[in-house]
Structure formats: structure tokens, C-alpha cells
Specification:
The protein is α+β, with helices and mostly antiparallel strands. It is 30% helix and 21% strand. A hairpin with a 2-residue loop joins strand 3 and strand 4. It binds FE2/S2 (inorganic) cluster.
């Protein structure tokens, strides 16, 4: 946590992008207003998770260091909600 914000790290590297991260580009605008100022969004070119993805699948996203595999907008928004509301 930085400044009381949770950190959402998106990966737009080749593997993640072709596996669906392209659909996550709008996530920032889809975060509900009550959560928006509590989430910091960062984009990466590779989170180094695709190389060792034996059990998990791209696209990868990290929420406060927690890995979300096969990330979708719905999955990410649910995870944000869970993190903030507990
Ligand atoms: S391209 Fe996303 S983790 Fe490597």
C-alpha cells in the first residue's frame, strides 16, 4: 500500500496482450467512482510471470502484489472491491 492506495499493476507485454490484456486497457475508466481515488494503476511491459506460468494463465495483473491470472475486467473489479471493503 502506498499513500493508502492499492496498487493495480497491469501487464501489456506480448503474452498478456494477446491473451486478453488488450481488453483491460479501459479498466481505469471502469473502476467505480467510490474506489477510483483509492487505486493507483500502473502499466508494465512484462511482470515476468508469463515465463513461469505452469499453473496460471495470462493475462496477469497484480493487485497489491497479489497475482491475478486470466485477468478480466470483472475479476479485477471484484478483487478491488474485496481489497477495499474487505
Ligand atoms: S507479458 Fe505479461 S507477464 Fe510477461
Amino acid at each position: 500500500m502506498t499513500d493508502g492506495k492499492i496498487l493495480l499493476e497491469l501487464c501489456f507485454g506480448t503474452t498478456c496482450f494477446v491473451m486478453g490484456a488488450s481488453k483491460l486497457q479501459e479498466i481505469e475508466s471502469l473502476i467505480p467512482p467510490q474506489y477510483k481515488n483509492k487505486v493507483e494503476v500502473k502499466a508494465h511491459t512484462c511482470l515476468d510471470l508469463c515465463k513461469n506460468a505452469t499453473y496460471m494463465k495470462a493475462p496477469f495483473v497484480k493487485l497489491d502484489g497479489e497475482i491475478i491470472s486470466e485477468a478480466t475486467v470483472e475479476k479485477i473489479l471484484k478483487a478491488i472491491e474485496r481489497k477495499i471493503d474487505g
